Amino acid sequence: MTDHYAVVGHPVAHSLSPDIHAAFARQTGQDIDYVKLPAPLDGFAATVLKFRADGGKGVNVTLPFKHEAWKLAEERAADAEVAGAVNTLVFKDGKISGHNTDGLGLVADLERNLQFALRDKRVLLMGAGGATYGVMQPLLNARPRQVEVANRTLAKAQSLVAHFARFAHLAKDGMTAQSYAALAGTQFDLVINATSAGLQDEMPSLPAGIFAAGGLAYDMVYGKHTPFMKFAQKHGARTADGLGMLVEQAAEAFFIWRGVRPETRPVIEKLRIED
Ligand code: NAP
After folding, report:
1. Share of the chain above pLDDT 90, in %
2. Which atom of ligand 1 lies at the shortest distance from residue 102's CA?
3. How far apart (Å, rounded) are the C-alpha atoms in residues 93 and 11?
4. 3-100+245-274 fold
5. Which residue of 159, 161, 194, 242 could cross-link 177, Cys pair, CB 3.0 to 4.6 Å?
6. Domain coordinates in residue numbering, the chain
7. Whose CA is nearest to atom 7 of ligand 1?
């Protein structure tokens, strides 16, 4: 019997998740279907509960509903609990459980696909919104030497750092909040763009010398040559977009739902060709 899944968002028409999960299902012989499920801004919970009542087994959740999904979950995995955001819901044994696979997806893409070991690295995270909250704990678990969070609204970066300080192995000065202007003179091995600035064809203002030799610039936005990617190329950094993270976080969700781990590399390669 076919099991039903969906991605819920507003908007959701652009989502690649159905293609990714269809590829995973073919590869692993799992009998599932996976559709796009648009929800009105004031109708997330009702949309999800109807999908469940109709027999759905789980959903992925995208913008702007990840916090609402956290609230809807009756129990939550540790990463999701700390992040305050859920991107994967499971309907099982009469319960709704919530997970956040974004951070594991990012770390898998960096370490496995891009061969970038996070341990002892200096990391700059740009942005202090839902995406940064979602990835922070798995990123810290990979034991970088330093994590600096920069944000246009500094107070939000400060709250985020205070929120995660109690879960971090880093000493007090190993995880800090900064304005972009204060970054002059500092260098990082990895700069992650977790802002939505690229969607408006903008980027936070960064000093030219921000990348250490051999540094990696990672843009969570995928499939686009964003101003941040162009800036990084101009200043000699290696670049990566967020397509790998998207596929890796989907693989984690697929594993949670189906108990089978799909191979991600052929799916990433296929989507790259189609882009
Ligand atoms: P969000 O909660 O709305 O936060 C947006 C962040 O971007 C805030 O920190 C905001 O700063 C900053 N920002 C927006 N415009 C800016 C500008 N012009 N200059 C500087 N900073 C700006 O969004 P989110 O959920 O964190 O998502 C961020 C991005 O990550 C999105 O593009 C999303 O598509 C992407 N994402 C990708 C994946 C993946 O799998 N690849 C997964 C999750 C998210 P202020 O606080 O100052 O407003």
Report:
1. 89
2. 42
3. 30
4. Rossmann fold (3.40.50)
5. 161
6. 3-100+245-274, 103-241
7. 195
